[in-house]
Amino acid sequence: MGSFNLKEFLDKKVEEYNRPEFIENDPILIPHLFSDKKDIEIMGFIAAILAWGQRKTIINKCKELIDRMDGAPYDFIRNHKDVDLKSLLGFKHRTFNDTDLLYFVAFFRHHYMESDSLEDAFLIGQEAGYPSIDIEIALNRFKAYFFSLADYPTRTRKHVSSPFQKSTCKRLNMFLRWMVRRDTQGVDFGIWEKISPAQLVCPCDVHVERVARKFGLITLDKVNWNTAVELTDNLLILDPDDPVKYDFALFGLGVEREM
Predict the structure, then answer these.
(1) How does 103-141 read in b/e, with b if 16+ C-beta sit within 10 Å?
(2) For residues 82 and 72, what is the distance between their CA atoms, to the nearest angstrom?
(3) CA–CA separation, 92 vs 225, rounded Å?
(4) Residue 110 domain-assigned?
(5) Alpha helix (H) ranges present in 50-115?
(6) In a domain, 1, yes or no
(7) CA–CA dist 229, 245 (Å, integer)
(8) What is the CA radius of gyration of the chain?
């Protein structure tokens, strides 16, 4: 398969999967339940972090959490009294539990007291705009910032990955795709302006990895941060402005077992 054909084929698949019908069976459904930017950021972030296991379960768990926050996540986070936190006790998805959740709530409260958008948490020490943002630096600094509150639970660290740990950072890269990518299809939100779609790194899960290897877009044996970077570098050749749009194609082909 020549690269020209590959681009043509993948572009067609992006069109096929990047459409509103995609939303209802994907964790991105959760932030789509809201119109306020802060609610979208908060529930988008949590949905991305909880995105492992069956997609249906992830969606149901996130809806349960929204109910526990009285249907208004940002309002709950900013204005709750200690007694209100009781409604979060007993929440659990896989290895994520109420200890982790209470820390997430504490972090968000801290962040939104200082800042208007979660985007700023990914811009620490970097000038906003292209081409100055380096996502690897952004994710490493984000993790350090996320766990900068006193007495964070050690167990919670495993739920937020970083390139420093050699992780592909699939969930964080997926969250960034949701917030940063903008087109007319209505799936991704494109509500962040300071990071450019061209700077994003492709989320690399098992489906994406398997399909990308078949096309020679990944050659490294191990699956780690370098794998995600290699994949993205190859996608940048196909579309220098919007490489992670191909996440739709690779993920869709993998999930639908088309390959």
Answers:
(1) bbbbbbbebbeeeebbbebbbeebeeeeeebebeebbbb
(2) 17
(3) 28
(4) yes
(5) 55-68, 73-79, 98-114
(6) no
(7) 15
(8) 18
Q: Give the 3-state secondary structure of residue 222.
A: coil
User: How many domains, the chain?
Assistant: 1
Q: What are 211-231's pLDDT values in tens digits?
A: 999 999 999 999 999 999 999
Tell me the whole-structure pTM to 2 decimals: 0.95
How many C-beta neighbours within 10 Å does residue 229 have?
18
pLDDT digits (tens, 9 = 90+) for 100-149: 999 999 999 999 999 999 999 999 999 876 667 899 999 999 999 999 99
Strands annotated E in 141-193: none
Residue 181 lies in a domain: yes
Provide the 3-class DSSP secondary structure of residue 174: helix
CA–CA dist 199, 123 (Å, integer): 12
Q: Which of 221, 247, 224, 253 is nearest to 234 (CA)?
A: 247
Give pairs for 34-37: CB < 8 Å, separation 24+.
Answer: 34/73, 36/74, 37/117, 37/191
Listing DSSP states for 31-59 in one string gives GGG--SHHHHHHHHHHHHHT--S-HHHHH
> Do strands 92-93 and 96-97 pair parallel, antiparallel, or not at all (unpaired)?
antiparallel
Q: What does the DSSP 8-state code read for residue 96?
A: E
Range of the domain at 130: 6-256
d(CA 75, CA 97): 21
> Is 207 within a domain?
yes
Q: Return the structure tokens found at 26.
A: 């994907």
Please identify which residue in the block is written with the tokens 């495993």. Answer: 158
